[in-house]
């Protein structure tokens, strides 16, 4: 046998390897995977970043395409990741032919329509994430056929119906994420078969019914249970407390009732507990406060009762969030609370707490939100901590002056001191915080003096409420400006003030001592009221925010005078535009610029010294309904322009209205009567009949009453005579009884 040299052998090996590589790159299987993915590409109707348009090309290997991972041995597609590409499209049935696929992730796109059943052919699938898309309809029952699936993310879609019971067949499942859909009904008991389950997120659905005990019997590995914002009722089952590895438990904002079992203390690894906004009853189990691993405790807005105790917080050194608001708790603030040096959020509002706030509050140097409003707290102004963003001590029995240390709060955003007995002046340095302050409420105290002058310079205030004090001074910019019932005086129309009030929507300066002419330049800058605002499909509220999981309407308790009534609001729609300058000493004419405040809903100029109105121009608006008959009483009105609106019904007659021409009303197709050529029918005139009788037929009205009174007097004398002479006549008695 002839010997073969080393060099030819090496060259042969390299040549063979090259052929093998070429064959691998052009293998039929890889070409098949490529064709499947090109079908998916064809179903993409919108690719704003051209990621697939440019990159998914037949000129390059599919293993080099964006979002594609191939196996190292067989060079087949094992992972498809198109997440967060802003794609719009549908899922083709051919995708189920990628038989080696283990990872499928298309979350945070706009895929829609139904899902093809052919996806069940992906029998190697371990990770499936269709979250935050636009899939709708019922979730298919065949999702229970992925035998190797470990993670299933279907959150943020439009799935309806019940959660498929077949999901209980996914014996290897560790993470089930279905939040932010529209699932209804109970949590299927078959979920209890998922013995490997670690995460269960079902938040923000419409789930109802009770938590069945059997759901948690075999979930010994469960670490996260989140059922926030559903309609689940009943009691918390004891079987839940067998899940000893639970670190996160949220039943926030449901309809849970009954008492919280003391066995909750068995969850010794728990870090986050949210049971707020339910109907839980009884006393709060003390065992909760023995779980030293807790970082967040949310128990607020329930029907608890009882007392706080002195060593309540001794075992919670890591606590950073505490919500015990609206829990009907009595007693004094426990001194042990001030051992929680990591505390950032403290909600104790709306309870029955009493006594003063201990000076040890300054130990909580990390505190960002401090809320003890609506209690019976007494004493002096509680010392603020340096990092505070929100400070709420409203509706208590606190006294004294605002300390100058409040001015060290360089990050303060909300300051709520209303309805106490604070007095003195507002520190001038508080104006230095106007670049961070958004909401300030000082109403119903005993403050006097002037507002800080620098409030009007670079101010970020959205709401300032200082009514029912004795304050004076310059005015800040905001969305809501309430200065009613104070002693402010002087002219509002000051040409030297260059402050723009472009965002103001509600202005109440009533019951003060303002004087001079109505401020034309002020009205000209009210751009939020001057502009048109389209109707919203959903209600939008003014000064609305979500902070630490809680919803706030910072105009709570706001009141306005409208339609002659004092109206109090717990929240205000953004469309609510109010201008109240009543009960002051304004004089002169009503400026024409008021006719350009297109979105104004309430205008109150009563109880001033304003003179006659000579011109009223409300043309080219969107006014609806009838022309008020009261306008005929404006005797000095020389010009009226109501054209190009949507007014209807008869035009009032008499006095100055008899002098106006057609031009005053054109563009209102529903109007009738003089001076228009269109006459009114009987129904149109019904509304004016009452006023016609009050004016033109006043004599007939009085005459009718006179005749009726006279006839009644004669008939009464006759009946009285019969009763006296006949003594209880049976026929008259029966008539009266029938009447």
Automatic annotation (TrEMBL):
Residues 1-20 form the signal peptide. It is a single-pass type I membrane protein. The keyword Aminoacyl-tRNA synthetase does not apply. One of its GO terms (cellular component) is membrane. Keywords: ATP-binding, Glycoprotein, Leucine-rich repeat, Membrane, Nucleotide-binding, Receptor, Repeat, Signal, Transmembrane, Transmembrane helix. Residues 33-70 form the Leucine-rich repeat-containing N-terminal plant-type domain. It is found in: Membrane. The chain crosses the membrane at residues 703-724. It comes from the Eukaryota. SMART domains: LRR_SD22 (SM00365), LRR_TYP (SM00369). This is Leucine-rich repeat-containing N-terminal plant-type domain-containing protein.
